[in-house]
Amino acid sequence: MGAPTATRPASPPQRDCAGRARSSGSFVVVLGVLAAAFAVTAYIVPRSARGPATEEPAGAPAAPAAVRTVSHRVVYELLGAHGARNLTYAAAGSALTQQTEVTTPWSVAFTRVGPAGRSEFYSIAARNPGPGELRCRIVVDGVVVAEKTVDEPGRQFSCAV
Questions:
Q1: What CA–CA distance (Å, rounded) separates 120 from 107?
Q2: How many CA atoms are closer than 13 Å to the CA of 153, on its beta-carbon side?
Q3: Would you report the helix, strand and coil content of the chain in percent, each value rounded to 5?
Q4: Where does residue 84 fall: left (phi above 0), alpha (psi -120 to 50 degrees), or beta otherwise?
Q5: In the chain, where do the E strands start and end?
Q6: What is the pLDDT of residues 19-67, one digit of tens each?
Q7: For residue 74, how many other CB atoms are within 10 A of its CB?
Q8: Residue 111 phi, psi (nearest 5)
Q9: Rg of the Cα trace of the chain?
């Protein structure tokens, strides 16, 4: 019947090319992963051989200066004819102390020690049971630093520095 026709083989050569392309793509990915692993290892291994990383201080470390302390002699006083109620004051170490009722004249003395140059807080508060006046006074190192008088019965008042 006629002349024989040539047929092409099925397509093994095309698959070969596509298969090689896929292999070279996988090879590039694997090569990239290995390069990244090498870079990370090169960065971490030398640091871990030296021990944990520590930050260098910005400047030379300052040695703490010796803190000079001073002591102050403190006296709280209440003066009046009928005593005082609800007494509250800041004592040594800034601890609050409270008493329900005291007779007058009343006083308490203590020494407070603290860093030189720091402001100290001194406070005393009381209620005047009345009638008559009630006076509070704070004396630090022999000097009156606060003084207040109230003459209204039942009135709460305070001296503070």
A1: 19
A2: 6
A3: 25, 40, 35
A4: beta
A5: 69-80, 84-90, 96-102, 106-115, 123-127, 134-140, 143-150, 156-160
A6: 555 556 666 666 566 666 666 566 666 555 555 555 655 665 665 667 8
A7: 22
A8: -110, 130
A9: 44
